[in-house]
Amino acid sequence: MKPQVKTTFVVSIIPTVLVSLLFYGLLGHRRDYLGHYAAGYGGTLCAIAIILAAIPATKFRQIGSLAVVLCTIFCIAAGTVTEATVFHLAKFDEIDYCNQNLGAVLAGLAMIYIAGDDKPSDVTLRFVIAIGAISLLSGGYFAVT
Known about the structure:
The chain is mostly helical. The protein has one domain. 84% of the residues lie in helices and 0% in strands. Helix 1 packs antiparallel against helix 2. The termini are far apart.
């Protein structure tokens, strides 16, 4: 593995696994809390990686971090709309909403670190998308079981 992929692994997986274990260990009776956290993390991680892939390397130093912050805010807003409309059919749950936002913010922080000043390689961004997709799918599983 290249150093950037190793760093990506450590920064994007280890912290979220630790937070997920805390959710499961302390609040295992409410698996939907873990599910909303993981879905917020995974969805935001994927969205940010896709946005960063679209930024030209020549402009990355100027707008990379700003793109991460704006994309994180957009994902939080999209989660707000989704929780208030689609998931409102069940019940708007403020704790679920906070958990998915916690996931989104942690994904944004991880991506700011991963992105740094230079554009991450395509391999790194694909790796991040894979991590995000796995997190999103596991979040969906835990949210409904």
